[in-house]
């Protein structure tokens, strides 16, 4: 499969989203992003704004081989026969995943605390704004009353002296 307009007539890999490419290669999405930045694999933004990645066939084959190895391991585990090396790999994987779960739980707690902090701060700001609006309204009323009194005084002072005297 080559496209006629392609400069070096290389085979075109199917386009996948970032998460699909990560699943197809068995890598983390951040690893895929790094490969894109380094120019190891091609990517472009789709119409919806998500990255579409061209995963070369050799990278996909590695993922297929890994999944075949994992299915054999799952079968061996189900039967109860697996080598010690796989057992240690499983233990490492479980340890890593439980560590990641703990990290994510800590991050979730921190995010909840941050959200609560910002919620409280927003409530305090709303109360302060309401108080300020109340003070502003009181000052505007006082100002309006003073302006009315000054206008009356100016009107009185603009009258000729003899009218003010005769009343």
> Which whole number gives the mean pLDDT?
82
Output the strand order for the largest sheet.
1-3-2
In the predicted model, the low-confidence regions spanning at least 5 consecutive residues are 1-6
Give the N-to-C terminal Cα separation.
106 Å
Which structural class best describes the helix and strand composition? mainly alpha
Strand coverage percent: 5-15%
The gyration radius over C-alpha positions equals 37 Å
Total count of strands: 3
Oligomer: single chain
**Main beta sheet:** 3 strands, antiparallel
Question: How would you characterize the overall build of this protein?
Answer:
By secondary structure, the chain is mainly α. The protein is 72% helix and 7% strand. It is built from 5 helices and 3 strands, in the order βααββααα. Strands 1-3-2 form a 3-stranded antiparallel sheet. Helix 1 crosses helix 2 (29-37). The longest helix is centred in the C-terminal third of the chain and has 75 residues, at 84-158. It is elongated, with a radius of gyration of 37 Å.
């Amino acid at each position: 499969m080559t496209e006629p307009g392609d400069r070096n007539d290389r085979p075109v890999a199917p386009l996948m989203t970032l998460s699909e490419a990560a699943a197809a290669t068995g890598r983390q999405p951040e690893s895929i992003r790094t490969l894109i930045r380094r120019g190891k694999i091609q990517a472009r933004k789709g119409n919806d704004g998500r990255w579409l990645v061209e995963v070369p066939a050799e990278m996909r084959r590695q993922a297929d081989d890994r999944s075949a190895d994992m299915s054999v391991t799952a079968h061996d585990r189900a039967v109860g026969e697996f080598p010690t090396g796989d057992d240690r790999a499983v233990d490492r994987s479980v340890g890593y995943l439980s560590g990641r779960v703990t990290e994510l739980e800590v991050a979730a707690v921190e995010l909840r605390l941050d959200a609560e902090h910002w919620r409280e701060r927003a409530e305090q700001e709303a109360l302060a704004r309401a108080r300020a609006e109340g003070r502003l309204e009181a000052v505007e009323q006082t100002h309006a009353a003073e302006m009315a009194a000054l206008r009356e005084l100016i009107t009185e002072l603009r009258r000729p002296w003899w009218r003010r005297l005769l009343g």
